[in-house]
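From the methods appendix. Each design record in this collection lists the tokenized structure first, followed by the designed amino acid sequence. Records were kept in a plain field format so they could be parsed without special tools. The example shown here is representative of the layout used throughout.

RECORD:
FOLD TOKENS (260 positions):
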């Protein structure tokens, strides 16, 4: 299955051996499984999925345009396996959102919180952009960069967040053997000339709590980087840590919380 919206799909298609079943998806008018009339909301997405043998109106419980593309890709793959259009439509509409993938944690006093696994510049760009489109108020992002990994991506990740968010809370991810402060120093280099408010809070739990505590009514807070992970790697020690649970506790403390 190839993303027809990606210019590289043409080169990939030519490299596929004869006899291999190929399906394409995306918004491109020539895609086999085409997304039309996409409307994204805070609780999911609505669109028409045009298929080789008809079309279906879908409402999926997945947030963001990129998840609509993921749904189209899943439909294309299911088609290759012989799954009927009715079966795949039902499956998409009743799918459970993956844990830690743009997961809606809850809201309190007008502030909404999401958790996502995004830990690269490209992933942050997609998830932050999706929430920016759905947020009338400010967008805050809590994020960090992993230790003992590519140091060159740190300022790039910070720049992506700064370009989209109104507030950036830079914090620890999995620092591993590196000094967390040195990682934050690398991240800060991507903020030169950027707009918005930027905060440096080394302790991840503290950063999440502060971002939610200080959120305005109508604000959306994204906690990015760890998603489904329920641990943090500090040196040689793996300690229990769950972004979702920390965010839930912070929402409860804020008052009038509605948790998912």
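DESIGN:
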């Amino acid at each position: 299955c190839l993303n027809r919206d990606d210019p590289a799909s043409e080169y990939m298609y030519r490299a596929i051996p004869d006899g291999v079943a190929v399906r394409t998806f995306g918004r491109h008018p020539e895609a086999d499984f085409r997304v039309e009339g996409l409307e994204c909301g805070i609780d999911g997405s609505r669109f028409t999925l045009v298929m080789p043998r008809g079309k279906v109106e879908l409402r999926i419980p997945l947030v963001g345009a990129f998840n609509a593309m993921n749904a189209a890709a899943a439909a294309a793959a299911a088609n290759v396996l012989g799954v009927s259009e009715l079966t795949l439509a039902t499956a998409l509409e009743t799918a459970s959102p993956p844990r830690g993938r743009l997961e809606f944690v809850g809201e309190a006093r007008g502030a909404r919180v999401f958790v996502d696994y995004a830990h690269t510049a490209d992933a942050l760009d997609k998830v932050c952009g999706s929430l920016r489109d759905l947020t009338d108020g400010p967008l805050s992002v809590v994020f960090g960069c992993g230790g003992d990994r590519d140091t060159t991506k740190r300022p790039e990740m910070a720049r992506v967040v700064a370009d989209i968010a109104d507030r950036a809370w830079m914090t620890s991810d999995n620092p591993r053997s590196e000094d967390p402060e040195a990682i934050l120093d690398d991240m800060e280099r991507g903020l030169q000339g950027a707009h918005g408010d930027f905060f440096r809070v080394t302790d991840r739990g503290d950063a999440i709590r502060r971002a939610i505590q200080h959120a305005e009514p109508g604000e959306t807070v994204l906690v990015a980087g760890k998603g489904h992970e329920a641990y943090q790697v500090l040196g040689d020690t793996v300690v229990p840590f769950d972004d979702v649970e920390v965010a839930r506790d912070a929402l409860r403390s804020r008052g009038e919380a509605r948790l998912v």
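APPENDIX NOTE: The chain has a mean pLDDT of 96.
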